[in-house]
Amino acid sequence: MNEKVLKVLREAEMVLIGIGSEFSPAMDEENSGAASGTNVPDEENSGAASGTKVPDEENSGAASETNVQAGAHNGSGQETDASARENNGAAPAGADTRLLELCRLSRYYEELPEDCAAIRAYNRLRELAGAKPYFVVTLNTDDLIYRSALEDDLIVAPCGSLSRMQCAEHIVEAAPIRDAVLAEGDVQKAVCPLCGKPLQFHTVEFPGYLEQGYLPQWQKYTKWLQCTLNRRLCILELGVDFRYPQVIRFPFEKTVYYNRKATLVRIGSRFPQLTEEIAERGISVCEDPVAFLLNL
Ligand SMILES: [Zn+2]
Questions:
Q1: What is the 3-state secondary structure (H, E, C) of 190-237?
Q2: 75 C-alpha vs ligand 1 centroid, how far in Å?
Q3: N or C: which terminal CB in the chain sees fewer CB atoms within 10 Å?
């Protein structure tokens, strides 16, 4: 199988790479808590904790009404979360828990060493691309790819980044804010340094996601993709599942369907299957893509 994949790469003129969730390291809960050294309440207790913490009982009724109104007026969940947080009221404990969880995850990614498996696998990809024109689309928000040898301006990450936070209009660096939140286990610290409004992580998971963060790179990518027409294109799809299939999985299948000189190499431990239409121009490898690359 390795030989087959290497042969496709060798014979290709251009390389298109898609990266999915199997490339994002899972956080080891025990270690991450110890590493961050914070008093963030743990998962099981956080519901109870925020329940006991609600201080101004009188306001909480009003607060939840405001939330509903905010949500109804602008249809933005971002604002709804935000006003809930401002009022510290009948709060969406789930949203606060999620923010804390992502703060820990963001720091976990940042603290991963340069020689972690994912970064080494990205470096291997860079080697494999060699001098061929390549482009990378990633669904991941861990930003580890930017610490590899792959060129930043040949990467697009449409799902956002856990290294950044956003209010409704500004995108800011997450690290100082995230660390302040974690130091006190207090999501109220997550406010925009530019306008004072509450922040969320800059990822597609949240309503109000500011797409201008990735659009310039996306335009570059679509232009690049046009140039692959009638070229021998190797499409490497690595660890992509069915989340956001309109970003990588479906368009990659379409590309290989229309470009008769393209080959799709789909590697994943869970969903490596190929559709019938492209089966003869595809290679399916049922393996963890990081491990596969490190052995290639
Ligand atoms: Zn702002």
A1: CECCCCCCECEEEECCCCCCCHHHCHHHHHHHHHHHHCCCCCCEEEEE
A2: 19
A3: N
pLDDT in tens, 186-221: 999 999 999 999 999 999 999 999 999 999 999 999
**How much distance in Å is there from the Cα of 105 to the middle of ligand 1?**
22
What residue ranges of the chain are covered by domains with CATH 3.40.50.1220? 2-25+114-158+214-294
pLDDT along the chain (296 residues), means of 10: 95 98 85 40 36 34 29 36 45 84 98 97 98 98 98 98 98 98 96 97 96 97 97 98 97 96 98 94 97 96
**Among the four given CATH numbers 3.40.50.1220, 3.40.47.40, 3.40.50.300, 2.40.50.140, the one describing domain 2-25+114-158+214-294:** 3.40.50.1220
Question: pLDDT tens digit string along 126-145?
Answer: 999 999 999 999 999 999 99
Tell me how far the alpha carbon of residue 224 lies from the centroid of ligand 1, in angstroms.
33
pTM value is: 0.80
Distance 79 CA to ligand 1 centre (A): 12
For residue 194, how far is its CA from the centre of ligand 1 (angstroms)? 5
Q: Letter for the amino acid at 211?
A: E
92 contact partners, CB below 8 Å, separation of at least 6: 80, 81, 84
CA of 126 relative to ligand 1 center, distance in Å: 36
Tell me, in angstroms, the distance from the centre of ligand 1 to residue 192's CA. 5
Measure 64 CA to ligand 1 centroid, in angstroms.
Answer: 23
Residues paired with residue 166 on neighbouring β-strands, in sequence order: 171, 200
